[in-house]
User: Which sequence fits this backbone?
């Protein structure tokens, strides 16, 4: 019976649990942060929001939010398509989105939701339209300073490629000092699936990150006008620098600036950074780095002390680190060109910047203050932004200033260090890992960008399993594990057979760069059943053909029959009658006791239970003769520990 599964068959259960998902990771390639609401009814309309992703990829999902709406909003349909010009789309590109399999979505006040993933090819820095048919909306949850021309129409026109029914969204600001805002309605994120991107850089800030004055003509002079669709903000230009870099070093940039935002309460525009960090930063897909550039409004408008700003900054640093995100601090730029800036406020700005440079536990520094420090302002006695880089208000840079800021950022701050976010049994049947057990590691930067593969014959030497694939290795408590599968976001491995229990240290090394040590929990056993699709157990008939519903793998899978002896494959059941030789490709032996296997809640007769291949256990069990038809729960219990409760085996008379 033990010969029913060969060594190479281990690729079936391991790959089925995670490999397909790991090939493509999600990254927030375009975002905006909602800051408030417009009390305008939009019932019976369509909106077309124009987004510009910062990376390329082969799949998308869209986030819509009603964060500041005071009543539910109902969308009947949603589409994404490539922009041809204005509101018109490239023919044939408009693709319908769904939400939990349905075309429409109702968002209660204060909530948000992602569309279902859909295959859709996107090219970095190409414009795409997300179109929503709005059935009911008493108000609009918005990002005010969008600086992009978006569109609306009366009636349901989300499916239309033509622009004939659409007109530009009306301006949200009549103040000539501010200029037009060109807001975004409801849409807050476009996530892109990519196998080669290395992470998402989130920029958290205020109007200087949001791009105020970045598109004002006449070098930002008061006489200039705001022009949309130029993408001149420093995060836009930083994204372009990443896009122009070597292959495999691209990073998505997610701009979470809100004009008027503060670090701490009282809020001026949108929730303070400490309150919106979870929604606008930590939840962004693939986030690996955060550039935090905020505090000038706390000081300049709220007259906050440096100590108050620093306390808020420290909260954000600690929470970013707790989420495994590297945080880079940016110093506050001069405001001496603003007539209302006081010597007290300048003292607070200097104190905050001194702390950022010399005391804060940021993972890196961007010294925008040093870059933008010009001559001392005549009325304030404080340094001003150099005139060639300053907007008319003395607070914001102009387009040239924003370009200088983006160009000054050292891209080595974003070098990819492996980061572990999860270590678990490869089949999710146990929260702990165990000796000689198949384990999955999830994180970022775990392998060279674009390098996705399993081990091959050439990786073996002298019948020893490989401890390294393409420069990727893993240690558990300092001992080498056997690396089976690598990708940017996931590594699958077989743990060494040495006894382990309690907290253990796991380290991934990618191209000679080690990750920080990750603490996982270990036990003597970590039993689980391998599954094909997250549910159906990996099992076979005695002739070697696979068991499952016919629709699982058409032409390959068939149900088991009551009374039939079948073969079930498992993981993490511990020592057997033959000691495991570390790294050796031949592993056999029987368990010291027979596990209890139940199918449909009824104990099955276990004919054999043992190790047949590295880390792979085989159970020969007889389906109870009175088992009914259908997907029946299957569970194995050994040493007082049971496998996952979600596995099923398909039975049919």
Assistant:
């Amino acid at each position: 019976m033990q010969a029913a599964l060969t060594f190479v068959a281990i690729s079936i259960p391991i790959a089925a649990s995670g490999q397909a998902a790991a090939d493509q990771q999600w990254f927030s390639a375009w975002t905006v942060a909602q800051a408030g609401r417009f009390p305008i009814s939009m019932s019976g309309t369509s909106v077309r929001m124009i987004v510009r992703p910062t990376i390329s990829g082969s799949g998308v999902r869209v986030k819509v939010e009603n964060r500041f709406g005071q009543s539910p909003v109902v969308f009947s349909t949603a589409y994404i398509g490539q922009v041809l010009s204005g509101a018109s789309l490239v023919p044939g590109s408009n693709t319908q989105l769904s939400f939990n399999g349905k075309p429409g979505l109702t968002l209660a006040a204060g909530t948000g939701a992602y569309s279902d993933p859909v295959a859709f090819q996107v090219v970095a820095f190409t414009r795409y339209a997300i179109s929503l048919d709005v059935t009911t909306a008493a108000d609009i949850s918005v990002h005010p300073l969008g600086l992009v021309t978006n569109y609306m129409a009366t009636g349901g026109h989300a499916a239309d490629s033509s622009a004939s029914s659409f007109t530009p969204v009306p301006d949200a600001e009549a103040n000539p000092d501010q200029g037009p805002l060109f807001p975004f309605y409801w849409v807050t994120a476009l996530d892109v699936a990519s196998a080669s991107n290395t992470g998402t850089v989130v920029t958290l800030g205020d109007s200087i990150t949001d791009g105020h004055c970045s598109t004002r003509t006449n070098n930002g002079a008061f006489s200039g006008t705001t022009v949309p669709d130029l993408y001149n903000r420093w995060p836009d230009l930083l994204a372009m620098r990443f896009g122009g870099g070597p292959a495999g070093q691209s990073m998505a940039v997610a701009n979470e600036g809100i004009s008027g935002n503060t670090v701490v309460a009282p809020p001026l525009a949108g929730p303070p950074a400490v309150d919106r960090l979870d929604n606008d930063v930590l939840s962004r897909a693939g986030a690996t780095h955060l550039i935090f550039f905020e505090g000038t409004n706390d000081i300049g408008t709220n007259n906050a002390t440096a100590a108050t700003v620093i306390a808020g900054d420290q909260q954000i640093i600690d929470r970013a680190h707790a989420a495994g995100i590297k945080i880079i601090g940016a110093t506050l730029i001069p405001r001496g060109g603003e007539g209302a800036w006081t010597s007290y406020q300048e003292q607070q700005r200097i104190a905050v910047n001194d702390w950022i440079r010399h005391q804060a536990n940021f993972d890196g520094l961007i010294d925008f203050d040093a870059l933008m420090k010009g001559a001392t302002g005549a009325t304030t006695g404080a340094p001003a932004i150099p005139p060639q880089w300053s907007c008319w208000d003395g607070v914001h840079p102009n387009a040239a200033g924003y370009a200088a800021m983006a160009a000054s950022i050292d891209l080595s701050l974003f070098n990819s260090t492996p980061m572990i976010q999860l270590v678990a049994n490869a089949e999710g049947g146990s929260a702990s890992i165990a000796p000689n057990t198949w384990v999955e590691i999830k994180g970022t930067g775990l392998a060279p960008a674009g390098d996705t593969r399993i081990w091959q014959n050439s990786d073996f030497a002298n019948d020893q399993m490989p401890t390294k694939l393409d420069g990727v290795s893993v240690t558990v408590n300092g001992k080498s594990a056997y690396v089976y599968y690598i990708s940017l976001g996931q590594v699958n491995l077989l743990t060494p057979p040495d006894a382990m229990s309690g907290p253990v240290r796991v380290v991934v090394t990618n191209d000679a760069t080690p990750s920080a040590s990750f603490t996982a929990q270990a036990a003597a056993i970590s039993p689980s059943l391998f599954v094909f699709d997250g549910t159906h157990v990996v099992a076979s008939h005695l002739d070697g053909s696979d068991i499952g519903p016919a629709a699982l793998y058409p032409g390959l899978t068939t149900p088991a029959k009551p009374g039939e002896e079948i073969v079930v494959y498992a993981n993490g059941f511990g020592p057997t009658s033959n000691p495991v030789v570390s790294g050796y490709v031949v592993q056999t032996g029987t368990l010291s006791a027979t596990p209890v296997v139940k199918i449909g809640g009824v104990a099955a007769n276990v004919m054999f239970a043992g190790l047949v291949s590295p880390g792979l256990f085989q159970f020969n069990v007889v389906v109870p003769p009175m088992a009914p038809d259908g997907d029946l729960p299957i569970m194995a219990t050994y040493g007082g520990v049971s496998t996952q409760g979600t596995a099923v085996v398909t039975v049919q008379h």
